[in-house]
Amino acid sequence: MAFDNQMRGHCLVRPIACASMFGKGIVSIFQMLLLALGLASGACVACAGSMGDEAAQWGHDATALATAPLGWKQSDWFWLETGVALTAASSLLDRRLNRQWNGGSGVATFGNAWAFAAPAGAVLFYGMQGLLSDDNRALRTAGTFAEAAAFSVLATGVLKVATGRERPDISGINNGQFHPGNLGDSRTSFPSGHVALAFSVVGVLSAHRQMPWWSAPVAAIAGGATIFARIRDKRHWASDTVAAALIGFGIGNFVGSQRDGSGFRPMMVSDATGVEWRMTF
């Protein structure tokens, strides 16, 4: 309530600045949606020979992703609860890390660029490989990276509007509270779209059998630079980035598993003698 009163006063005194802040929020979400559409278009161009099949695959995967919780088992709910717990635990570091990292950083510059370069580069690389060598599997891989990135952008965009969390870079009127339904740039902090994009690539890499074993860990390390960048630039709280990494990885792994039939799936199996953990790849 105090924040809302401050914001109203701020808008009355500086209406142009307030309108600009609201507009930036719309632009930020619009930019993410444009990226999603661009990736989708790139995948369709790459898969021009089977565009109908690719569109049908996206529709199938979107439905499967949206309805997945209806068929979740005990282990699936366990991992969701673990993700929520990790996000909540990381929120204890929100203010400390927000104050700790300041100044210029080459790592942060790389991290911000990686969020967009990773999915776009993967789509371009596999798309060109597929076109030049007439390799349908490479074309489908390009479509997988594009689909995972697009779904991650859409998911984070919906959550940004639904949660309306204050960004840490709005000094004087910000304390990280949530205001559901807000579109102003100062209230689109949770979760981070950049981090979700970076980790959607990690999820896809972890789901595909033909990828080198080291590709997912390397992409995860690069994604860590994106996490650092978003916190250092005071665009996100630590908990925003943790939630986004889990969302991006989960969506990427799910999409990759739908297309490749593999993926990282931790399972908890219990019987009369105890509990067993299994992981399939």
Notes on the protein architecture:
- It is built from 10 helices and 2 strands, in the order ααααααααααββ.
- It has 281 residues and is mainly alpha-helical.
- Residues 1-27 and 263-281 have low confidence and may be disordered.
- It has helices at 2-13, 15-46, 51-67, 74-90, 94-100, 106-133, 136-163, 193-207, 215-232, 238-260, and strands at 265-271, 274-280.
- The protein is globular, with a radius of gyration of 20 Å.
- A two-stranded antiparallel ribbon has the order 1-2.
- β1 (265-271) and β2 form a beta hairpin.
Could you list some keywords that capture this structure?
281 residues; mainly alpha; two-stranded antiparallel sheet; 10 helices; globular; disordered N terminus
Write a compact overview of the structure shown.
It is built from ten helices and two strands. With 281 residues, it is mostly helical.
Topology of helices and strands:
Layout: H1 2-13, H2 15-46, H3 51-67, H4 74-90, H5 94-100, H6 106-133, H7 136-163, H8 193-207, H9 215-232, H10 238-260, E1 265-271, E2 274-280
